[in-house]
Write a structure and sequence with these properties.
Elements lengths: L2 E7 L4 E2 L4 E8 L2 E9 L19 E8 H7 L12 E8 L6 E7 L4 E3 L4
Parallel strand pairs: 1-7
Antiparallel strand pairs: 1-2, 3-4, 3-5, 5-6, 7-8
Length: 116
Amino acid sequence: MGLSTHVLDTMHGCPAAGMAIALYATAGDQATLIKRLVLNHDGRTDAPLFDNASLRPGTYRLSFDVAAYFKAKGVVLPEPNFLGCVSLDFGIAHADEHYHVPLLVSPWSYSTYRGS
């Protein structure tokens, strides 16, 4: 499966459908945009971020536009928002393995882990 993600809205208890995300390759302080996507009705991308053939070892960043998502859901947020974009930096050591990067998020907290 390569690289995938899934976002769950813990405030509303549902997938974060419609959340905008961006995937970057990173090298030190440099980040190169690979793609921008919007999550589907299940809070996932329609296809893997990288399939098995295109996944490479290296460092990456997933950026999740949390504030825009919750504003679009009608949540009244303070200015400035506590969480704007949540960026997760992670490494791919073994390109032959599946890497799943889930995000559990509310306007005030988030959690992640290496999923299966």
